[in-house]
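Duplicate of #3305? Posting structure anyway:
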C-alpha cells in the first residue's frame, strides 16, 4: 500500500511538473517566460547553425534578440521574420499583446516606464508613431525606428 502511494505521488509530481513546464514559452537566451514579457520578440531562423537550428524562437526582449542575432549571423545563419509585441495592446492577461513586424515598430527608449519581463536596455514598442509620442510625453525618452534601435542596442551586448 505504501509503495502505491509513493508511486502515485511520484507519477503526479512528474506529470504535473512537465505539464506546467510546457505551458510556458521560455526565452531561448535567458530562460525568462517570454509569454509574460511585455517586450516579447519572435524570430524565424531561415538558415540555422550548428548551435541554433532553423525554426521559430521566442525571446523575452530586444536585449536577448541582439545577442542571438549576432550568434546566428556570425556563424553563417540567416534570420527571416522578426515580430515584436506592441506595448499599447498589452493587458494584464497571460500572453497578451499583438505582435507586429519589428521593422514597422516605433521604439521608445530611455523612458521612465519599465516594461515587465524585459532587460536593459528597456524599451517600449508601438505600432504607431502617434502612440509612441503619447507615451513619450508621459514618460520621457526618445523614439527610434528599427534601424536606429539596432544600432542603439549594440552597446548593451
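Output from current build:
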Amino acid at each position: 500500500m505504501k509503495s502505491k502511494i509513493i508511486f502515485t505521488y511520484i507519477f503526479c509530481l512528474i506529470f504535473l511538473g512537465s505539464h506546467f513546464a510546457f505551458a510556458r514559452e521560455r526565452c531561448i537566451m535567458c530562460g525568462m517566460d517570454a509569454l509574460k514579457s511585455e517586450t516579447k520578440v519572435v524570430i524565424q531562423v531561415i538558415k540555422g547553425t550548428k548551435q541554433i537550428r532553423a525554426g521559430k524562437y521566442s525571446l523575452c526582449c530586444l536585449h536577448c534578440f541582439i545577442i542571438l542575432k549576432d550568434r546566428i549571423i556570425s556563424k553563417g545563419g540567416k534570420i527571416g521574420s522578426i515580430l515584436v509585441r506592441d506595448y499599447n495592446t498589452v493587458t494584464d492577461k497571460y500572453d497578451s499583446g499583438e505582435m507586429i513586424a519589428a521593422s514597422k515598430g516605433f521604439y521608445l527608449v530611455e523612458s521612465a516606464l519599465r516594461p515587465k519581463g524585459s532587460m536593459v536596455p528597456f524599451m517600449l514598442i508601438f505600432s504607431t508613431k502617434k502612440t509612441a509620442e503619447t507615451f513619450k510625453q508621459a514618460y520621457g525618452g526618445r523614439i527610434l525606428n528599427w534601424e536606429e534601435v539596432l544600432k542603439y542596442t549594440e552597446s548593451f551586448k
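Confirmed duplicate; merging threads. Residues 16-23 have pLDDT under 50 and may be disordered. The two ends are 57 Å apart (CA to CA).
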